[in-house]
Every structure is written in structure tokens, then in C-alpha cells.
Amino acid sequence: MIGRLSGRIGYRAEDHILIDVGGVGYLVYCSDRTLATLPGVGEAVTLYTDLVVREDLMQLFGFPSLVEKEWHRLLMSVQGVGAKVSLAILGTLGPDGVGRAIALGDWASVKAAKGVGPKTAQRIVLDLKDKAPGVMALGGSITEAMEGPEPAPMEVIETPETGPARVKAQPKPRGSASAQADALSALSNLGYAPSEAAAAVAEAAGETPDAGEAALIRAALKLLAPKG
Question: Where is the stretch described as Domain III (predicted)?
Fold first, then answer.
């Protein structure tokens, strides 16, 4: 199983690239969104990959993150969704958008992808709704694992009494993926069902994409509060 490739781009085509890894060229198919973010020919690139094997064909599909790769695998588990349809959905919505649409039951957003009809979009939302919280949580853990703890930044502050002094700055807000994962975990610990919590966090994150964990929890709790 080929899970990741690191090499240089040999050439770019409309729906795929060739990655030269030690003199061996691998054809890797990507979504439009991913292709738009890749560097030029001759430059270094790393992609997570999923190998699809059929009776008469073997194809590699590439993703910039493990979360996007996981969504690809889940999308293809739905009846009627092949690799091209999965890439179309991810290319249109991105991994965060896919998670938000499924958590909220927003099949109309899924239908916006090329080649996806209303019945297929509804089936995707229905089949994957209970799996969305797990992938959303995965996104946060992967972000933390890859980035690691950031060293505390230092600021220079000068006062009349002490003169210039280097002091520890306030930590920056955590990334949106980690914040959403932590908010989801907190709501689950409060007793909310995973799918219910995921929908609330997704809606809150959609309204304030840069919100931190505490803000997401407060917003989600308001959405989950009994109406009337």
C-alpha cells in the first residue's frame, strides 16, 4: 500500500500530476482544489495517497492532509460514489466543508459538486452523518501531532523602571481544526450525542471560522439549548 509520496513534480496535467520519486514516476490524481495549491514543475511536493485497485486499473489519488484522505475513503464507501465523484466533492467543499455539510445534513452543498445528483447527495449525508464527528476529531489530533507544541513567543517590553525586558507573550489561539475537535470533545463529555454535538460545532464554526475552543463551545451550547 502506498500511503505517502515525496518527490518532485515531473509534469502537471488537467486532473493529475507525475511525482518523480528517486527516478520512478507516479501518476497521482488530485482534486481541482489540491492541484491549485501544488508547486510548479520541478519543485518538491509531498502528498498522502490512496491506491484504488480494480480488475483492469490501478490509480493513485493524492491529498494534502490525512483528514482529506480519510474523507475520500469514507465518501467512496457510499454506494454510487467513486473516486472521481469523491474528488469533485472535496474539490468543491474542501475537507472542512465536507464535514460541516454532513454534520448539518446539508445535502444541497454536497449536490453542488459536479456529477452529484440529489439522491446521491442525500445518501452521502445519511450514510456518513454518524461518522462525521470521528473525522472532525481526527482533524484536530492530526493538526496537533504534525504541528507539535509551539515554543512560547517572546516580546520585548520597556518600562521606565526596568528598561527593555523580554517576557513571554500570550499564546496564540489554536487552529480551527484543533478548536473544533476540542469543542466537540467537551460537548460529548457534557452528554450530547456525537452527531448532535458535531452539527452544533459545525454551525458555530461556519458562522465564526476563526473562533477558539471556548467561543465555539459557548456558541454551540446556545444552538443546542431548548427552544421556546
Answer: 177-228
Three-class secondary structure assignment of 167-228: EECCCCCCCHHHHHHHHHHHHHHCCCCHHHHHHHHHHHHHHCCCCCHHHHHHHHHHHHCCCC
Class of domain 134-224: mainly alpha
CATH 2.40.50.140 in the chain, residue ranges: 4-63
CA distance 205 to 158: 38
Distance separating alpha carbons of residues 61 and 16, to the nearest angstrom: 9
For 4-63, the fitting CATH number among 3.20.20.70, 2.40.160.120, 3.30.420.40, 2.40.50.140 is: 2.40.50.140
For residue 48, the one-letter residue type is: Y
pLDDT of residue 128 exceeding 50: yes
Whether this prediction's pTM lies above 0.90 is answered by no
CA separation (Å) from 7 to 20, 39, 68?
5, 12, 20
Question: Does 79 or 130 have the greater pLDDT score?
Answer: 79
